Amino acid sequence: MHDGDGDRAGNAPSCDVLVIGAGLAGTVAALAAKATGASVVVARKGYGATAFSTGALDIANTPELRVSTRSVHEHLQDIVQHRRRHPYGVLGAEKSAQGIAEGYRLLAEALAQGPLALDALELEQPNRQCLSSLGVAGSAAAVFPAHRLPVKPQSLALVGFAADPYFDSGRVRRGVTRDLAGDEDAPMLQEVVVPGLLPDCTPVGIAKVLDSDAGCAAFVEQVVAGLQGGPELDVDALVLPPYLGLAHSDRVRAQLSEALKLPVVEALAHTPSVPGLRLQLQLEATLARAGIAVVGGVGGGPHASHGPTAAGSALHRVQMLTGEALDCRSVVLASGRFVGGGILYDDGLREPLFDLDIVTEIGGSGEGSLAAMTRALPAQLQPLMTAGVWVNDELRPMREGAVAHTNLFAAGMVLGGFASRFTLCADGVALATGFFAGQAAAAAAGTAL
Amino acid sequence: MGDDGNGSSAVGEIVDALIIGGGSNGTGLARDLAKRGASVVLCEKGDFARGATGASSAMIHGGPRYLLDDVDTTKHACEDSGYIQKIVPHLLFRVPFLVPIRKGDTYGRLQHLLADVYFDVYDRYTPLKNGLPHASLTVEQMMAMEPRLRGDFMGAVTLDEWGIDPGRLCVLNAADAAAHGADIRTYTEVVGLLREGAQVCGARVRAQGSASTEDIRAKTVINCGGPWASALAGLGGADVYLRPGKGVHLIYEKRVTNFAIVAEAEDGREIFVMPYQNETWIGTTDDDYYGDLDDLWATKDEIDYLEKSVSRLLPEIAEQRLIGTRVGVRNTVGAWGEQEDALSRRFDVIDHAKDGAPGFFSLVGGKLASFRVQAEEVADRVCLDLGNKTACRTHIDRLPGGDEAPKNNALVKEYGISPLEAERVLSRHGALSPKVLDVGRESASGFATICVCEPTLECEVRYCIRHEMVRHLGDLMVRCRLGLGACQGIECGLRAAQIFAEERGLDVEDERAALMDFLSRRWRSVRPVLSQAQLAAAELMMIQYTGLWRKPTLTPFA
Description:
Oligomer: heterodimer
Largest sheet of chain A: 6 strands, mixed
Shape of chain B: globular
Distance between the termini of chain A: 22 Å
């Protein structure tokens, strides 16, 4: 139950800004708020889309143009032009670009000391080529260090492990070659299979084993031995499956690289995603380093609201499922969509914490039968899948057509009006909206005295 | 003429029988005729069991409710049930039923007595199907068996039925037919009949994806098209009156109860909740269907009706996760003026000579439980015309895998798989299980689990692709239950597509198309029941394969 009628019951707030959600959007919002000097607490539940991310940062792209000479910024402008309800459209092209740059800067600063240090973001450049363990050639605005290919590689060796269902180097080679057919700059690809890995182990299980010194050393030895006596690897880099460590994702690659005298990179991941988990864990570490408390946890998190409060009122308290109440001066909702649990669907769409208005990419309010809200083929855009919270250009969510609360903002996948798989933009949305929502919430907290 | 059903009739050759439809009737008939030495071509528009068979309640039950006015159906069903058990025991599993009797007012106790007497009569037929006689339970005994039942009960009666995997039944019928020389063509649609004057002498068919048609000449054409039988009969100018009855089942993620339990729906109809392998089903509806047979969809109405019917009796069901639906249409013989439930389930063998189309037959009506005797009657009739005097053997000879199967622990020991994995392979392949598992020795990943929900092993996937007439990746859902679980094919689809591509030598684009087709089928089943957890799974699935969907270019949504 939240108290929205201005009654603060005389409690000193736990924080200035309460951020709900600890994924990419929530973390960026928290860092942005903190940077203004506000005190911040993050309340979270479980994993969301961030933990399933592939190792790339998707800002703006057109997926079917696998390698495009168009710059990221041009893709972004395209989105703004054609998809009005997309968060980029809501913010406008210029503001979106600005928010992306600022959010990225905050993130890069926060990650600078760890294994996920980011390169500079160049929105005026095309998306950079990358390989997915799905056997697809793609591109992204930025990738984490593990997935960075050498610039314009001439040849790459895809190294897979025998009987590994997650990464079949032959399939990856065929798929990527197919996608890059006709591209003069496409690297030559060869596949190598190294004998057996850890039997019956999931990618996450393997990654955890490789975090240990012993596990890492044994693995490096195994790979080196496996490659000996094989074909001469006169390539620009080796591409391995994306599970070479979880907390220490640079160590295995560094040791392997030294032993083989070649750069070692990972392909992008598919689910279950070790790179996604790496990012999630590093985000949590950055919050800790920034002195931002994280409360909740799986099964915990904020409590569903009971009944809307007067439009335009201010929020002062959010109840947690654990029973405790968090008092605050403003709130950023970054609770994710279906995977993250920020948007629920049981006989209708709803946002469970504040009962906010829902919007989809086709403009509806998310009401309608399943037959109307979905399409026969998964390849088609499913309006239901684009559902999320309706916000104005200040990222203030609406309830019954009016701004829900003067001090509530929203960011990330919880926003409606887009589906990332058609515009490859989820991380850009998180960065831009996270940044602006965090700043706005801090400002609102500052004025709420 | 390998055992993948690819024997093909040479151009110009005239086969004895062309069968339309790959459900229980069509495949059962193909097997019967092929075993009698007739040359057979079977054409099925999609995959096996695509229609009523694949959406059925998957029981070869004796239909106790037909005792009152349709005794023949009960007798046929029980008798044939007995035969089916003999020929394909590994596909069968016992389904013990609980029929709770509610406390009525004065009639409550009488109800219980009546039920007891009723099932005493039904017991006379149960030996035919090796069923156990019913038992009458006190309410205490009933609650001890299933403590979560809610309601005011007098007691219960138990009932013994047999469940079967109907899809695999069709696959094995077809495989046996192919082994006896039949040409089995899935994904081949019959678009017209060939005539010489009035005489029907074959059919014009179109293979899926082909622009052109092919003429197959046959001495007889038999329409086993299930609910499509009316339209197919129309190709010969014949009028077959059916009352197509739509039936929906809900599929839940796991077993909720080990008994099938009969519940009374709000409108007085009998609904049951039952375990089916590693799922729970609620079924079923029965409504006259006037829509497109190729575009079936479980409506919210139907879903709510079924859930409501059972949750009164077993409230726990509301907490379970719906992962899909089975939707099909019965090919019930038509009669004007009757309620759907009251329509006879008898079968008819129609000789369309009376409609001016000699050489053309239709098999309509009937039940899954008596598919074999239905096919036998048609085969008898067709063989009369063909002058074929070979006796029917479909009730004697076993289907592939129906011989004595190895024991579970023998397989565990021999191949190093788990008892659960062994049990799943045995339940699908019976005596052929060692052949399936031998495939696992070909590579280091041979015994890897492809579908965790089931579980299905890599060797079984390969075996099915090689020997069970798989044309599309999605066919594996019927062969080895791949991707039917809660994961919606996220985990298993990718690896299965890879294996499929290896086995068939597919290039990248075809492999991707195979995967997308597989996921599309799974989506079709789950789309009507999307709710919280399934929506999250669907969201993941769509994100996961972002790189592989064929996307529209950036079109404005104004």
